[in-house]
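Sanity check

After download, print the first record. It should look like this:
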Amino acid sequence: MLRIHLCWALGAVLVSLAGLANAQIYTWTDANGNKIYSDQPHPDSRRIDLPPTNTVETAVPQMRERTPDQNQDAEGKPTNSYNTLQIASPDHDEAVRANDGSLTLVVNTEPPLAPGHILRASVDGEMRPAATAGNGQATQRLTLTELDRGSHDIVAVVTNSRGEEVQRSQGITVHLQRTSLLQPGRTGSNAAPQAPQKPAAGNPAP
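Expected structure tokens:
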């Protein structure tokens, strides 16, 4: 137990004096047999040579310069994220028959549409509610409904989760053809209106 006590005491003294690089450590045994350590010499003391003090250089943390988001410019405005954002179908200036007024767009992106991005379509300058969330696929299908017959300018638009526009495609023009209620030859409840028939002449008087 005494040896353990002395080892602990020696360790504590060495640790407490480790910061004094040029200090001299002396030790001796007093009249009661206790081991004494001090930086002051004693008539019965002997000097202890300390090994070189271990030093650890602390790295100074470097402040990293904040870089803009990869989808934003220096002013925080969204920038292009896709090398390709293109309406692959229908073709530009194509006539499409859709009696129910629906039209399905096939849109290609490269790289694939990212999670957190949403694909929508602008028709004649108005953003349509139909949307497709990013799923890591390079080809997306987006169905637009309730389109009127006639020509429409369509643009594919990618937004982020906050609704901010990230990128838009080159626009195309589609000519939507729907069957008119006035078209001759229609039958049933959707038949084109007919002019009233001329009343038949009555029998001549005898």
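If your output differs, re-run the checksum step. Summary of this record's structure: The chain is about 10% helix and 30% strand.
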